[in-house]
Design brief:
Strand content: 25-35%
Radius of gyration: 27 Å
Number of helices: 12
Amino acid sequence: MPISVHEATGTFHLYNNDLSYIFALVEGYPFQLYYGARVPDEEDFSYLVTECWMPSSVGASAECELVSFEHLSGEYPFVGADDMRPPALDVRTASGCNVLNLVYRGHTVERGKPALEGLPATYVEDPSEADTLTLTLTDDVTGLAVDLVYTVFAHEPVIARSARIRNTGTAALTVETALSGTFCPGDDRFELVELAGSWSRERHEVRTPLRPGAQGVYSLRGHSSHQFNPFLALVRPETTEETGEAYGFSLVYSGNHRMLVDVDAYGTTRVTAGINPEGFSWPLAPGEAFQTPEVLGVYSADGLGAMSRALHRVFRSRLSRGAWRDRPRPILINNWEATYFDFTEDKLVEVARVAADLGIELFVLDDGWFTNRNDDTAGLGDWEVDYAKLPHGLGGLAERINGLGMDFGLWIEPEMVSPGTRVWAEHPEWVLHAPGQPLRPSRHQYVLDLSNPAVVDYLTDRLSAVIGSANISYIKWDMNRSFADVFSQTAGAERQGSVRHAFILGVYELYRRLGERFPQILFESCAGGGGRFDPGMLFYAPQAWTSDDTDAVERLRIQWGTSLAYPLSSMGSHVSAVPNHQVFRQTPLKMRADVAYFGTFGYELDATAFAAEEREAVRAQVAFMKRYRGLIQFGEFYRLRSPFAGRGNECAWMVVGEGVREAIVAYYRVLQEVNAGRRQVRLAGLDPEARYAVREQGVPEGEAELYRRSVSGAELMRIGLNLTDESCGQNFSGRGDFISRIFVLERV
C-alpha cells in the first residue's frame, strides 16, 4: 500500500514509483516535510523539522516556543496560529472570533478513492488504482473538525487533495476561506508557468521567475475565466519539455478560484489552491459540513512534457466519464459562421447535405433556433422552438439530417436570460440582481440564479423537453458572460456570500441530471469560447470549445498552451472560413485543417460555398482524420517547438500511439524566412531501437529521399526529422507564408 504511517514518529509517507509526499506531526500539528521525487520509506524523517527560535516569529504554544508555523509548512494553514501567510482556512464564530487551534485527532487509510458530494473529482475504476488517507484535525473551543483527504494514484505521479469542514459544535460558524490544499515543493529556484489571456487568446503560456511574496492566478468572474486558467506549474530554470523537474497543480473547479505561489523570507515556496476567498462565505450550522473542490498535484522528474501527459491521462480516463469517454469524437460541421442567426430549415439541410457527401458525420445547429432569437438581444430563457424558421420543429429537422446519414446536435445557453422573455416577466426574482441597483448587461443578457434550486428544476424540465423532442446526439452548452451584480433575490442576507459557489453547484447539478437522462449524448462545454475550460467541466462534458478564435495561427498558441494541462480529446478545434471572422487573416485550407486535426476536429463554415477543388481537399481531410483520430485524441502528446519561443514563427508537436507503433508529427511555419538554412526538428516518444517509415501527408511516396527508406527512432529523436524540402530547389520548408506539414510514422 503506497501510504506508510509510522505511529511512533507521527510520520506519514505517501508514495509511488515516481513521487514521495511526506508530512509529520509536531506537537500534534501536521507539517509538510518533503514533496518531490521518490525516496525510500523511513520510520523517522524528523531531521527535516526545524526547531529553533527565529527572529520575529511566534511559537506554536507556550510549551513549544521553538516550533513556528511561519517557518514550517503546515498541511492546512489556519488563522490564529503564527503563520503570517495567506491561510487555507478562515472560520468565524458568532462573536466574530476567527482564532483556531486545529490539532490532529486521528486518521484512516483505505483502498480506492471516495467521491466528493456534489462536486466533480477524479475517480478510480478499481480500488487497487489508488489509496486514500484521511487526516482529521479538530478545534476543541469551536467544535470545528477538518478532514484532510489525500489520494495517491498507484500508476500516475499524481496526488489529489481536498478538505471537508464539519461543525461538530453547538453554535453556528461561518467559513470565510476554505482552500482545497497546500503543497510545498521546497526552495524558490523555480519559474512559474501559468495560462493567461483573454477572449480569443485564451491559455497563452506565460513564464515568470519566482520572487519573494505571493504571485499566481485567480478568477472573480463567476467562472474559471478566459483570463486565468485554474492551473499553474513550477519548473526549474533548466527544465525542458523532456528533462528536469516540474510540478503541476490543477484545480477541479469551474467558478471563482485562487492559486497562489508564496515565497517566504527564507526562500521556502508554498502553493495553495481553492475557491477564491474574495466575496465568499458559507454558513455552517451545527451538524453541517462544507466540501472543498479537489486540487491535483503532479510531479515530474522528466520535464514539463511528462507532467502534461500525466494530467492528460488522468483527465481523459479518470475524470471524464460516460459513453463518450473512450470513443473517438465525431467529425462535425457547425452552422454558426455559415449562417449566424439568418437561416431556414432548407438552408441548414443543404449545408448538411454537402457536408454528408464529404464524409462529415454530425451537423450542429447553433444559436438562433428558438423564439424571438434573430440576434443576440433577445430570446434566452424560454427555450421554445421558432417554428417560423423550423416549421417541422427540431424533430423534423433532425429527421431530415438523419436521413442524410448524419447525426444531429444542438446549441443551448441555459444559464442566461434575455429581457422580454416569459421567464423574465414571470420570475424576475430568478435573475441575479441587486434590487434598486442598475442592471448591468453583457451581450444583452443576464444571469439566472442557479444557486436557487427552483431555477435548476425549471431548466431541467425545459431542456429535457427540448432534447427529448428530437434525435439529438450532441449538445454544445454555452455560457457567454461573466457575473457582475451578484445578489440572489431568494436567499437571505446570511447566504449572499454563498451565491457564487452555490451557482456552480447548481450548474454541476443541471449537468448531472441531463447527463443521466440522456446518457448517449456527447456534451461539449463552452463559455464564449474558452472561458470555462477547466477540469470541473470535463467531469460532465469530455470536450470543450477551446476558443472562439479559429484562426490557424492564433490556434497554435492557444492549443499549445491548453495542452500543458488538457488532453487533445478535450479540445474542440474546427476549420473555419477565411478571411477568419476573428482576426480577418487568410490562411490556406491545408494549414487550417493541419492545426484543427489536433483536437476533436470539425468545420465551422458554409460547406455549400466550397469550390470543387476545396471539396476534394475537405474530403481528403475528413478521410485522414477518420483514419487517425483515435491515435490523435488518445495518444501521448509531445510538444516539440514552441510558438512562444523566439519570434514565434514556428511550432511543432506530435502524437505517439499505443505500443509506439504509429505517430503523427506536425510542423508549422507562419511566415516565409529569407535565406533560410537546413531545418530539422527532433522528435520524441519513439522507440529508439525501432525503425519507422516516414510519409508526408499529401506528398506521393518516393518523391523525396527521406521517404524512400525507414528511419530509426534514435535518428529521428537525436538528429531530427528533415524538414528541408529538396523539391523547392532551396533549403526552405516549403515556400510562402502559412506553411504546415503533417508526417505519418509507422513502425516497420
